[in-house]
């Protein structure tokens, strides 16, 4: 049995699986939420109407019941990916609901026609820019309805005048207040989604899609920050790790095998560095690491441990075993150093490790 919050989340995100962008997702969520707010508004008013004991307001609550039952149709349309129809459906349902209640029972005495102002503004948030004709049409229709009722008014059924002035005012305030509340809620969702969008784009720009490690650009930024903050006596080490004969894995098992091998190595590197340093995929089969916390073991020991770990963790793909080894270029340094200088020293060390037979580390110490 799903909990109430997971059910709420499920209803709120109905249709998001079909969305190709965060903006579309936000709009779908807004429509789903619109269904909830509309249903809650109708139900809350039904209770309030019942409490007044007044026949007309009770009757106007009853009139709304068929529209309440139609609202899940909007969820279903979103769920099946028919977003455009879902948007129109919600407006047709809530506009008809308001108009019928206004015409047949309440008239304009509760200021219910203020809802048309809300329905005039909201389409801009629900529809996409390319669907501006729908937004414009709904804007004109709702604004015209509002102006008509504001100027002419509409009589309510006579029993309504039996309500006390206080009850009338309270219901008016709640009607207008619920419109304002809905607008605030939609603005908050937009704001939250803009934030999430920003975080998502930033992560996309900083991450290597295959291994989910940081990419070269992000690594260089972070490394530069570390160098700027580095204390004079602090020892740091940059390790550049290059998988040996990686091309052979691609040639033997295909490109997919190569991709899986890169994920396998990334996993081992993450385990090795833990939370205490920087790690990134900086090229095809090349990774970079910065050892920050070098107190427990020297960088050279750590690099040797890593070589053994890689060698002793074969990789399997399509029932075939691949032994993976790597070469490491290490640059150990203390004090202030230029980023390009440190990278060049580590690169030279890597070149030397490759040319001296691979599966080894070479170190440059520029302390
Ligand atoms: N599967 C896969 N292969 C990649 C990717 N990026 C680069 N490569 C391959 O990695 C191979 C790198 O080959 P080389 O530069 O010759 O390096 P190597 O075979 O590891 O040889 P050494 O580094 O000299 O030991 C090339 O065949 C690239 O096509 C990737 O994302 N996925």
UniProtKB/TrEMBL annotation:
One of its GO terms (biological process) is negative regulation of bacterial-type flagellum-dependent cell motility. It comes from the Bacteria. Residues 234-366 form the GGDEF domain. GO terms for molecular function: diguanylate cyclase activity. Its EC number is 2.7.7.65. Keywords: Membrane, Transmembrane, Transmembrane helix. GO terms for cellular component: plasma membrane. Its cofactor is Mg(2+). It catalyses: 2 GTP = 3',3'-c-di-GMP + 2 diphosphate. The chain crosses the membrane at residues 31-51, 57-77, 84-105, 111-130, 137-157, 169-189. InterPro entries: Diguanylate_Cyclase, GGDEF_dom, Nucleotide_cyclase, Rev_trsase/Diguanyl_cyclase. This is diguanylate cyclase.
């Amino acid at each position: 049995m799903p909990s109430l919050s997971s059910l709420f989340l499920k209803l709120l995100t109905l249709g998001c699986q079909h969305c190709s962008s965060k903006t579309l997702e936000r709009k779908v969520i807004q429509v789903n939420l619109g269904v909830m707010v509309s249903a809650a508004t109708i139900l809350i008013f039904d209770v309030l109407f019942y409490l007044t004991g007044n026949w007309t307001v009770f009757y106007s609550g009853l009139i709304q019941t068929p529209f309440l039952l139609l609202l899940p149709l909007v969820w279903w349309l979103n769920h099946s990916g028919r977003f455009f129809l879902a948007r129109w459906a919600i407006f047709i349902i809530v506009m008809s609901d308001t108009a019928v209640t206004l015409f047949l029972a309440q008239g304009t005495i509760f200021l219910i026609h203020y809802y048309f102002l809300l329905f005039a503004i909201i389409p801009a948030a629900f529809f996409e820019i390319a669907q501006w004709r729908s937004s414009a049409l709904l804007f004109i229709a709702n604004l015209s309805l509002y102006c008509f009722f504001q100027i002419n008014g509409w009589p309510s059924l006579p029993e309504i005048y039996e309500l006390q002035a206080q009850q009338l005012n309270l219901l008016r305030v709640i009607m207008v207040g619920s419109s304002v509340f809905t607008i605030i809620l939609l603005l908050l969702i937009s704001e939250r989604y803009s934030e999430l969008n920003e975080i998502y784009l930033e992560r996309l720009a900083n991450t290597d899609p295959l291994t989910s490690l940081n990419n070269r650009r992000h690594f260089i930024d972070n490394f530069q920050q570390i160098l700027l903050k580095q204390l004079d006596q602090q020892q740091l080490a940059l390790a550049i790790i290059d998988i040996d004969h990686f091309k052979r894995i691609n040639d033997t098992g295909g490109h997919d095998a190569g991709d899986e091998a890169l994920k396998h190595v990334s996993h081992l590197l993450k385990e090795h560095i833990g939370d205490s340093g920087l790690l990134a995929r900086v090229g095809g089969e090349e990774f970079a690491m910065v050892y920050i916390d070098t107190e427990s073991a020297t960088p050279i020991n750590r690099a040797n441990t890593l070589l053994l770990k890689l060698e002793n963790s074969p990789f399997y793909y399509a029932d075939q075993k691949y032994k993976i080894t790597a070469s490491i270029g290490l640059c150990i340094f203390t004090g202030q150093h230029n980023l390009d200088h440190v990278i060049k020293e580590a690169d030279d060390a890597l070149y030397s490790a490759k040319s001296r037979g691979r599966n080894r580390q070479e170190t440059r110490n520029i302390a």
